[in-house]
Amino acid sequence: MSQSSMLGCEGLRQLEGPELVQETMEKIQIVKKCLKAAQDRQKSYVDKHRREMEYEVGDKVFLKVSPWKGILRFGKQGKLSPRYIGPYEIIERIGPLAYRLALPAELSLIHDVFHVSMLRRYRSDPSHVIREPEVEISEELTYMEEPAEILDRSVRKLRNKEIPMVKVRWTHHSPREATWEVEEHMREKYPYLFQ
Q1: Tell me, which fold does domain 147-194 have in CATH?
Q2: For 100-124, how does the pLDDT look when each residue is reduced to its tens digit (9 = 90+)?
Q3: Chromo domain spans which residues (predicted)?
Q4: Measured distance CA(195)–CA(191) in Å, rounded
């Protein structure tokens, strides 16, 4: 059986050499036009939301920190974690889209070059600065949290055992700020509470 008769058996249209090439070229052109139109559409959408960011050496910027799991976090976790930290000074431009920042010693484990998308301009505003009053602390003074009273008792049940708990109100705190503590530890440390 010849190749042309096999094509006919399978229900495919038999094309001769130049016709096949011409039809294939037309389909390729249609696909290219569709791809170009889709790319242009996506580019115009992205360009509406894109802002050109360019910084100078000496500018101060905030550094975006990642909210995703498994990536270094700064301080709090979850919804309350900061989205940006800083401000940090730009000390060098490493190309059109990367900058080196002057990071503090506690961030020394982090690479100090960042893509422009990770930065946000810092605009100095004196009204945003909160001045804390200076507190003088005498070195002879100490502050110890002491339990004031036991408000409630409970038993915490685990798989194999039960742990007696006590709800303790601490001195200088309201009953709303009471904490649950293990009774055994409280008996050892503060036996006068249980007399």
Answers
A1: OB fold (Dihydrolipoamide Acetyltransferase, E2P) (2.40.50)
A2: 999 988 888 888 999 998 898 888 8
A3: 147-193
A4: 7
